[in-house]
Amino acid sequence: MADLLSIGRSGLTASRTQLTTTGHNIANVDTPGYSRQIVTKIAESTRVANTGYVGSGTSAVSVRRAYSEYLTTQVRTNTTKNSHAVAFQSQVETLDSLLADSTTGIGSALDSFFTSLQTASTDPANTTTRQLVLSDAGALAQRFNSLNATISEQNSLINKEIRAVGSQINGLAETIGKLNEAIATASSKGEQPNELMDSRDEAIRELSSYIGVSVVQQDNSTLNVFIGNGQPLVVGEKVNALEVSRDVDDPTQVEINFVNESSKRAITGQLNGGTLGGLIDFRDKVLIPSLNSLGQMALAFSDAVNTQLSQGVDLNGNSGAALFTDINDDALASQRVTPSTYNSSEIDGSLRITSAANLVASDYQLRFDGSNYTALRLSDGASIQVSQDDQGVLTFKDTLGQDQGFSVTLTGSPVSGDSFTLLPTRQAAGDIQAILTQPDQLALAAPLRSEAAAQNSGTGSIGQPELVGSSGSDFESLEAISSITWTYNADGELTATAPNVPDGFSVVITPENISIDSSNTNTLSYSLAINNGTSSVSYNIQQDFSGIPKEGDSFTVSFNSQGVGDGRNAQALVDLQDKQILGVTRSSSGYSLSDAYGNMVESVGTTTAVARQEVQVTGAVLTQATNSRNSLSGVDLDEEAANLIKFEQYYNASAQVIQVARSMFDTLLAAFR
Questions:
Q1: How far, in Å, CA of 669 to CA of 78, rounded?
Q2: Which of 147, 257, 521, 569 is paired with 275 by a 20 to 30 Å CA distance?
Q3: Whose CA is closest to 168, among 160, 623, 35?
Q4: Which of 293, 327, 298 is nearest to 310 (CA)?
Q5: pLDDT value at position 564?
Q6: Is the dihedral of CA 401, 404, 410, 413 positive or negative?
């Protein structure tokens, strides 16, 4: 009877533990990270009786978690991937809508500018159409500025979010370290603290939503957490930290440093996964390249327009003034070189664009080792060869000999280890300004014109001359000599003379004689070198010649001093819309401005579509992993309700066993009375 009483009591104790555990499960049905708990029981040892081995009850030996390290790791890993995808998608969709929208992108403003130029080319003397060109130029520059400012603001918001995420990571690391300490203390008593371990797993899962982590379990039940390329964020109860600070090479960006007791080192490029990885990937792989591409377009466009205008004549007979800001303005050039804050010297520098058509949409890193300069193109990691001339000007070519389109001049001598970030294109879209305000100063006319002499008897016809290059930017010398004359001679050649050379001037025409093939259209290519006694300037000229002239026929090429009714330079400006003016390399003829912007919009759009798909895929995999984990560790209320009934019956039955044992004992006592 004593044995029966002991057995009943053991069942009562075990069932009470199971009821308590079931109630605890139900109470935590929606607690984040909670793992369903299960009571582990064993049968008590048996004893030998006359009839054989007889049992002695049960014992609840432990309360354990329904837990799988594999499933927990799967949830953690897929949380990292999905959070990365969501953060990346959120940012890239913002940029995509900005670039593709006709009210914010530059596509529509670009079309309006060239449309107004086309109108002006057909009526170049009309002040209203000229003013429209200036207005549309200002609107286009403003669109570049606005788009650049909005993308830059997105960059600033990303920097702020990176700082906030860094704080969240540090807070969670502290929590994990404290939980490790508490778990190690509790585990030393022989039992695992389920709730503490659940809290730690949930903290690590939340941490994995911010950054990719790897976890290693230790013998004392603590977990070590590593990030990046194995940097130990948490080791037992010891916690290191991330520090978000201004990038030493680029003040517009932030960098992430790993900080422990003895050192601090930048690890931005080593981090991956989670919200932090998504933000960094978007910033480095999409946002900054987009700013550089936009700046590359602004530089190539403004330089091409200004260059073409310089080859024209305005309504006052003056050489063309610039419509947009000089791309090599001293203030702009100095902004393109950023010394590292770690430099030993205090020198600065300036970067000047030498060929906007050759520019690559990239930042560069320039380093000095005490003897030589080396450079790295950051967009693709390509090594760039650096040359220095006698004046200290640095020029840059890739390994194929392709000029990078810019030069750098430092303000002094660097010290070994000094480095500089070069930004030839990054800020350019924010710098472009329309600076021409007077419509009569818009050089829509070509500087030269030609005509056949009225007394010519042949069928020879000379086309309008095109100025294809000069060593000067004005036409004072050209205006001074007024004109040159080509005369057809008996040898079938055109011979050039300059009949109106002022005193003190000299003129050299090369070649002086050009043979004419009367059966074909000829291209006359010649140079005109003019010396005014103190300086010289040369002009390269091309024009077509066709027909059959007669001996003595002459053709005059003269300076277009009035420029009224002449829209040839305006048409040359219109042609820039489809001309390949940027991205010119040894292997590529380059892109037109419209194509370049279209490619940029298409690239970001494709990236956005891929990002959306990535969110869907990683979200589905995360849901599957979470469901698998919940099927094992989650609380099922139906199951727990059934357990309540079962364990209540178990409890009542155990109580009945005790009641029977008591009744038997009472009967036995009564027998001896």
A1: 69
A2: 147
A3: 160
A4: 327
A5: 62
A6: negative
pLDDT single digits (tens) 93-126: 999 999 999 899 999 999 999 999 999 999 998 9
Three-point CA angle 278, 280, 284, nearest 5°:
120
Domain locations along the chain: 2-66+634-671, 347-424, 448-559
Burial of 243 (0-12, 13-18, 19+ CB in 10 A): middle
Q: How far is CA 14 from the centre of its chain?
A: 62
Per-state percent for the chain, helix, strand, coil, to nearest 5: 45, 25, 30
Residue whose C-alpha is closest to residue 474's, from 551, 537, 555 = 537
What is the rounded CA–CA span in Å between residue 158 and residue 545?
A: 61
- 412, two tokens: 């002094």
With contact defined as beta carbons under 8 Å apart, do 267 and 244 qualify? no
Residues of the chain with pLDDT under 50: 2
Residue recorded with tokens 């994995």: 208
**If you ran DSSP here, which 8-state letter would residue 319 be given?**
B
Give the alpha-carbon dihedral of 347, 352, 354, 358, to 10 degrees: 90
Query: Which of 513, 420, 520, 511 lies closest to 461, judged by CA?
Result: 520
Contact status, residue 446 vs residue 467, Cβ threshold 8 Å: yes
What CA–CA distance (Å, rounded) separates 226 from 224? 7
Could you tell me the pTM of the whole model?
0.88
* Cα 90 to the center of its chain, rounded Å: 14
Q: At which residue do the structure tokens 């007889």 appear?
A: 54
